[in-house]
Amino acid sequence: MKYLNTVDLLIIAFYLCTIVVIGIVLRKKAQRSKDDYLLGGKSIPWYMLGLSNASGMFDISGTIWLVTLMFVYGIKSAWIPWLWPIFNQVFLMVYLSKWLRRSNATTGAEWIGTRFGFQKGAKRSHIIVVIFALILCLGFLAYGFIGLGKFVEIFIPWELVSNYVPFHVSPEFVPHFYGIIFTIFAVFYSLLGGMSGIVWADFIQFAIMTVAAVVVGYLGYVAIADNALLVPDGWMSPFFDWELNLDWANIIPEVNQKIKDDGFNLFTIFFMMMVFKGILVSFAGPAPNYDMQKILSTKSPAEASKMSGFVSVVLMPIRYLMIAGFAALALVYYQELDLLTASGKVDFELILPSAIKEFVPVGLLGLLLSGLIAAFMSTFAGTLNAAQAYLVNDIYLKYKNPTASAKQIKNMNYASGLLVVVVSIILGLFAKDVNSVLQWIVSVLYGSYVAANILKWHWWRFNGEGFFWGMTTGLLAAAIIPELFPDVLALYLFPILLIISVIGCIAGTYSAAATEESVLLEFYKNVKPWGFWKPIKEKLIAEHIEVKDTSTFGSDMFNVVIGIIAQTTLVILPMYLIFNKTTPLLISLLILIICIVLLKKYWWNTLTER
Length: 610
Known about the structure:
mainly alpha, globular
């Protein structure tokens, strides 16, 4: 058993002390006002917010999942994160972030008022967005919770701890126990420092992870150069046929069962469904979580676009350098890994922590553990901040105490944060594994979100009642449909949830009058969306109000396609680098350069504030 060296423990302790200091130092600034706490006073530079957002996405649970995917599926694993979908950042970069930022709202629920006004239907819409946001935040917190527990379990064996715990913990709940301990610690700087504290802590975390990723990538590169690599035919190619056709039977037979359990074998159907769902989710705009809060925290719409674009640039190469490095080490030295859980079962989600334990040298081990624990805290803090924003801004201040003093708001921020943490821990106790929580969030929960949130941007007649009933029917379907089809992969239930939600949207819309004309005119004039807005545009022209031509759909979609290609090459490049595939590496690099030139001309150069 490899234990942590004194040097590693000191590095971890130093990191933990640093984030405590950040929380204390920025506490006073965070308490100045609601905007200072929730949005950093809208004064944080876009590149810092982008780095913070990337850091929040460099989460421990996601990294565990992605290392497992690359180990099993090879270069083809570059497509599977489209389940999120990761390319929604490209849609945000090109146009959606600036649309959202023009609202000057504090949360996604507050933004609803700029679109639907404040009548009966709009109030219902506001409430349903808050409910969805809180469910989403709690889901992400539970997802991080179980990932952290699995990670810590392999470094702190339960037999070393059990004698000091005054109660019995069954083996399957050991990860949950560790998750609770670190969650309690993470609460500290999340509650004290607000958005500014989160951004600075994220900056430190990303710097740590960058150093660790470079070293791990180097270790993986050396391992591949010095040893024979045993993988199935097709593992090294991003291309696929109707079926996956990766046969591990003569190499690691247990992996074939993992592929079967994941449900990815009919890969073309899986891929088409991912693209279908991913495009719709991206058109809907950001879900009401920490990503949206970072967009609303930027100084201007142009900076909101730059921030969203910067996320992919800094996140993908660094993260996948680490992922490919660990996958390489795990493949070369698989027999040395300990993938058995406390209950004696093989769990491929233990590849990452097991590889760290076996192959990372003293000093770097402490740095890497600090970074990965920080990754959990970063995701946790950003998600917690978003949940607090909805509870305080959209429930407490809107319905309970609109004239609350600064002290009352501060106390409510703390109380709501603690409430969210407690509920997320309870939910985390019921989480089976990282993949099951992820599938529920991205496939089932998002299925209830898509229809109403596409229509709110693109159809003038869509009103608050339509939004409310679309979201409500979607959420109810998300709770019922998976129970009716327990053996069906969650992704394949998406079309059913979408159809039910669309019916709710249309029925709700025509059950009430259109949104007040003044609200629609103001929204269209400020946000400038494209879509079915002709009647509103004509009314503005009739009132002699200058209307910017919003027919940018073609150029926006061109930039989206180029952006997705660029983002995908940023994912694949580190893979080919670590596995020493020179020709595919050079081809990917050439494609990336062409994409950068096109985006510079047709996207970046157009980011001017009018």
